[in-house]
Amino acid sequence: MKPQTFSHNTVLLQESIEGLKINSQGVYVDCTLGGGGHSQWICEALDDAGVLVGIDQDDFALEFAKKRLADYTCRRYFVKSNFASLTKVLESLHLSEINGILYDLGVSSFQLDDDTRGFSYHHDGPLDMRMNQSADLTAETVVNDYHPGDLKKILFIYGEEKFASQIVKSIVRAREIKRIVTTLELSEIIKNAYPPKERYKEKHPSRKTFQAIRLEVNGELRILEDSLSQGLKALKPGGRMCVITFHSLEDRVVKHFFKERANPCTCPPGFPQCVCGKEPELKIISRKPILPGGDELEDNRRSRSAKLRIIEKLDTGQEVL
């Protein structure tokens, strides 16, 4: 069933808003606007000189957020785009010296709950999984048309699925008979490919495969590091970046990016002083990822895998955007 309202529990809301250290007259970018949960609290902290830029690929999310944030006095820009185009978005708005950037990665609750979007393995719907519904690549294409070797690689790398070989063999057998076109068709194939003793453990057998296909369809991991680089360049010295991830692959990309930019020195460990000349671009505010508290975990089970990392840009004397 397609939801009539936008239902989304904003994850790590207080922690991410506090992490941004909002200046009431600053410029803030929500790279994953969704229904505007984080953006609403950013707008609460901004006065009429402050600016919010909300970026999302989803038309429904953009329209909902516009209505949700309509009564705030700060300047608001809503842009249909992917965070891979962050620099172009900011240039088109003639904005620079950004005070804060937020990423809330992954799929929104409303997308999961909308059966017509094909993200959920619990309900029947078309194999779609596009965050941008005008994009060409769908989950149906990945499942039915990808070479078995490529499909196995996607499941193994993006889903960290240890039964990737068995699942792909089952998919190939099924698609030779007829095209796989619905989420429950695919979920049933995956479940039957799992060893029986593994099938009914705590987590659903389709979880990792659906995650992997979604990441492939939307290119999420391929664009993440590049977007983080664009975001860091756009930040003014002292500006903050908050990134919320929901699985280990995303978190690994973010952690590695932050660590590399915080300590870029390539000199051998035994050197008495740095001679490579590479200066840190940021300092890490949250040495360990910030996790949801007990109350949030109880209220929103989808928050259980969330991790928040926060950095602050240093003044290196380089130009900003």
In short:
By secondary structure, the protein is an alpha/beta fold. It has helices spanning about 15-20, 35-45, 60-70, 85-90, 110-115, 140-145, 150-160, 165-175, 185-195, 195-200, 205-220, 220-235, 250-260, 295-300; strands spanning about 25-30, 50-55, 75-80, 100-105, 235-245, 280-285, 305-315. Its main location: cytoplasm.
Task: Write structural notes for this entry.
The chain is of the alpha/beta class and 321 residues long. Strands 3-2-1-4-5-7-6 form a seven-stranded mixed beta sheet, sandwiched between helices. The protein is built from 14 helices and seven strands. Mean pLDDT is 92; it is low at 1-7. The chain folds into two domains: 13-110 and 220-313, Vaccinia Virus protein VP39 (Rossmann fold, 3-Layer(aba) Sandwich); 118-218, DNA polymerase, domain 1 (Orthogonal Bundle), CATH 1.10.150.
Kindly list the characteristics that best describe this protein.
321 residues, Rossmann fold, DNA polymerase, domain 1, 2 domains, 7-stranded mixed β-sheet, globular
User: Multimeric state of these chains?
Assistant: single chain
CATH level-two architecture of the largest domain: 3-Layer(aba) Sandwich
Rounded average pLDDT: 92
Integer count of domains? 2
Rg over CA atoms:
21 Å
Which fold name is given in CATH as the topology of the largest domain? Rossmann fold
**Proportion of helical residues:** 40-55%
Distance between the termini: 44 Å
N-to-C order of helices and strands: HEHEHEHEHHHHHHHHEHEHE
Unreliable segments (pLDDT under 50, ≥5 consecutive)? Answer: 1-7
Q: What is the CATH class designation of the largest domain?
A: Alpha Beta
* Total count of strands: 7
How does the helix and strand content classify structurally?
A: alpha/beta
Indicate the overall shape: globular
Major sheet: 7 strands, mixed
CATH superfamily of the largest domain: Vaccinia Virus protein VP39
